[in-house]
Amino acid sequence: MTNDPIEASNLLSIPRHLIGSAWFGPAVLAVLFMAVLGGLMWLIQSRAVEVNRADLHGNIRTAQESIRQRLRASSDYLTTLAEDMARGTVTEELFSRRLAYYMKEHPELVSIVYVDAGGTALWAVPTSPEAKVIGSPLACPRSLEGCVKARKTRNSVYSAAHISHQGEPAYELSVPIYD
Asked: Could you give the CA distance from residue 175 to residue 153 in angstroms, rounded to a whole number?
């Protein structure tokens, strides 16, 4: 092997005339600087995405807990109302007044219907002449399932989410009334 400078430069694949140039050193440093800067930018971006993802998961958990609390509150309120109805202290007028007020504070509730043991609607809030709910049997299979399950378990039961007869997403809460 010879110590020929041309062979040494071929090994490095960099022509010798470029190594001696005044701009080569700063160019290499600029490329290295850009690579490091690009790596730092990627690292910062990935950390920001990670933080945003963690914030989103936290917000989802908070929203879920808020929804659960509202559902529990409605269930507790209606259970208390059912206990009052079992004692005979609630008239149709009181039923309508109490629930109309409660529904103003809970816009997620669309209607509340008092159904007898046979599945016929006796009282409803809000009352709507075109709906003709009062005196009609429950028509929604999910409502019937909820009533049967609430009667058997003697506990409040939420139905599975479904599409109502009005074509909107819905679910029911069935609260049994026992003497």
From this structure: 10
How far apart, in whole angstroms, are the C-alpha atoms of residue 162 and residue 101?
A: 26
- Residue pair 108/132 in contact (Cβ under 8 Å)? The answer is no
Whether the pTM exceeds 0.70: the reply is no
CA atoms within 13 A on the CB side of 126: 10
Cα 139 from Cα 122, distance rounded (Å): 14
Six token digits for residue 89: 């202290």
pLDDT confidence bin for 179, thresholds 50/70/90: confident
Write out the DSSP string of the chain: ----HHHHHHHHTS-HHHHTSTTHHHHHHHHHHHHHHHHHHHHHHHHHHHHHHHHHHHHHHHHHHHHHHHHHHHHHHHHHHHHHHHTT---HHHHHHHHHHHHHH-TT---EEEE-TTSBEEEEES--TTT--TTPBP--HHHHHHHHHHHHHTS-EEPPPEE-TTSSEE--EE-----
CA–CA gap between residue 115 and residue 121 (Å, rounded):
4
Q: Is pLDDT above 60 for 109?
A: yes
Over residues 64-81, the pLDDT tens digits come to: 999 999 989 999 999 999
Q: Quote the tokens at residue 110.
A: 């669309």
138 and 117 in contact (C-beta within 8 Å)?
no
